[in-house]
Amino acid sequence: MHRGELVLILHAHLPYIRHPEHAEFLEERWLFEAITETYLPILQRLQRLADDGLALHLTVSLSPTLLAMLADPLLQERYVRHLERQIELAEKETVRTKWLPPFDRLARMYAGRAREAHRVYTGVYRRDLIAAFRSLHLQGGLELMTTCATHGYLPLLDRHPAAVRAQIRVGLQAFEEFMGFRPRGLWLPECGYAPGLDAILREEGVGYVIVDAHGVLFGEPRPRFGVHAPVRTPSGVIVFGRDLASSKQVWSSIEGYPGHPDYREFHRDIGYDLDTDYLRPYLGGDGSRTATGIKYYRITGATDQKEPYDPDRARAQAAAHARNFVRERDAHALRLKEVLGRGPVIVSPYDAELFGHWWFEGTDWLELVIRDVQREARDLRMTTPARVIDGAGEFQMQQPAMSSWGVRGYHDMWLNGSNDWIWPRLHRMAERMVRLTSAMPDAHGPSLRVLNQMARELLLAQASDWGFIIKTQSHASYAYGRLQDHMERFDVLADALEAQEIDESRLARFESQDNLFPFVDYRVYANLPPEPGGGFQAALASEGRRRASTPSARLASAPAANAGSEQAARPPASATPAGPGS
Amino acid sequence: MTERAKLEQAPSAVDEMVLMAKDPWWVYAYWTIHAETERDVRRQLKPEEIEGVQSLLRVFDISDGGGSFDIPISSMATTWYIHANAPGRTFMAEVGIKTRSGRFIPMARSNAVSTPRIGPSDAVDPRWALSEEEYWEIYAVSGGLPAGTTAEDVRRFFGKQATSAGAGGPWAAGVSSAEWLSSGAVSSFGLFSALWPPAQAPEQRDQFWLRVDTELIVYGATDPKAKVTIQGQPVQVAKDGTFSARFALPDGTQTIPVEAVSPNGRHVRRIIPIVSRKTAHEQPREARRHPAEAAAGATR
Q1: Which side of chain B, N or C, has fewer Cβ within a 10 Å radius?
Q2: Contacting residues of A for B114, CB less than 8 Å apart
Q3: Closest partner residue to A472 among B128, B182, B191, by Cβ?
Q4: CB–CB of B137/A340 below 8 Å?
Q5: Least CB-CB distance to B143: which of A244, A252, A403?
């Protein structure tokens, strides 16, 4: 491994939002916007790269809830209607801005984009974006992975290992249902990791995960190659640590690319500027102003006086930033090779929706980066986690430290004054789910349906998105509403089950409103690993105890005695009070 | 009770206490104690102990060499953020009451939880050995740190001396280290606007402001089956024969030929509105005193 390896990962995720009870629903637009601005452009560009004979050694994680929405016929139909309205609005805009250059050109640009999205979605992909991703995987080398069922934040769910297991297992099952194969890797929601999670991950067949840099840097024992080589946990899961330099160049609100003055200003949308009578058919149901996706201004600077957007200048800037990114990664790889004595593995994960949606020019940048790495970079080549694993020799064994990529690096975003109240509710729901599952291991008929629907409601309530949205206060009332719905439905179902008085018409209503993952089997909450065998149970139990002990002091005093990496990472467990949920 | 308050209440079937790690320095605790348990516990008090009873959290550091500390709490509290201030240690807690004489009667005991460690592990695997200096150098060059950061800077930042083994204990670094740890990643789409906030909303601007644009609606009616163009561009004609088009109107003159061609193509009608707009510019000025104010002032 003389060269550095760049592992670009795009994590595509949206919470499950589907409201058949309404003719249209504002928050469903998040999906439509992401399809138009991120997923379709990325698919097209990847196809273009493949057509040009370039290798697609990129990794894309598609969350189970996103997959479910992409496959849902109701949402597909609503998306097409949304596109038709977009085209209509954009065409009206081309008329309205006729006497107002340069806006007339921008309006024509948006009309063209909307028409193109319609053509590609209905004509080329025939509404099946999942097949499009699968095809790029099969033909072009695109690596696909997924995340937990509803993006539950595992470190705070692990009071009940069954809840953690269900998030993982149902997530992998969902991916297999939609894609037809099992992924090798699992994207940990928010890169949230707690020591010991690796045992459950391994039991569920997960080959690799990604954690934030300090998860590996502060892991035990110290990583020989810092964050620039993957490590292997005691259970055998490979862990990749995030590279901070490449993250900062894109994400940083101070220094990151997307803040450049020539790029499109996300917040100046005609939905907020123009007359409401004109906009009414394109706004939300209650007529309140909302973004339309048609934005005419560039960032310009820290000022309210935004200048009109210039697509040519922006595109040139994206190209410059792409060249800059590749050059920086190349130089960094060289520096790291000198210090580490071997080629580094540079893992650069990003939210997929950053590209094209938040950062309009991001898809240009992405395509150019992929081209530039293959054309220009000397000390670097693009690869995927699976290829790194398959091509590598031995991995250092390590138990990474508890960490996440959330702001401040730990659990603050999901456990703070605004949203801490969610956890006691979720814990008690999980406890009740486990208890009822164990009380009825062979349910059938209506009871089976109730237990399966309870599992769905629990999974939906566990989505980390709700707590996050409440914390950031955008659309908080929607998140509260979702939590209320799922918590209440769960309780109603559990009460009915315990009293053995099941109202089948109400059950059917819940099943149709919360129809996520039809294949869910409540027995995933039976607290047993998929394969029978004392070895796994013992490993799980010992990991549970390990989580409660602090072996570092013990290790520090006797390094010479611990010959071999196995022992160095697995010290004797100390006696502690009852571990979480075991 | 509001819907939200009902949602946030979560009674449990049994007495329980749960600890959750929040970050290296904070542990979140929640508990439920039922009325019967409280009554039972209070019945255990001797008569002279009843006055001055204090609700209490007793937090145990159950790692090697750890102790315990007490947190007086309100008897109504059911949650608490415990400032454990000790990364990489394991804690357990009890909630109960303490008498004036110091007797503590626990009502529930929690699970054990470990705070995340911060800073490098003390453990070094001999097969993958690296010295202190090497570790800090690799950390410094791994990137994402302020430019020009040296290995020595990083080591000093984490408060470690070359020879100290360090078994934990309070970190002086505290909150600021988090800036070095997380690159402020947007972990979900919603946080984007927090990182790149919109330009100040009008209500927040310091300077008074005004923005004015004008639009022109050109509309008319003709035979429902006629073909209509405005400035050569076709316009849709509704079933009742009306049509309308909306234009942003800038400064300048617009000549707007509106032409209708009859259904049989043999007749043409044309009307050409000519519209001009210009903008007179004024210096921003302060308002004159309102006449009513001036009158009121004069009568005092």
Answers
A1: C
A2: 195, 402, 547-550
A3: B191
A4: no
A5: A244
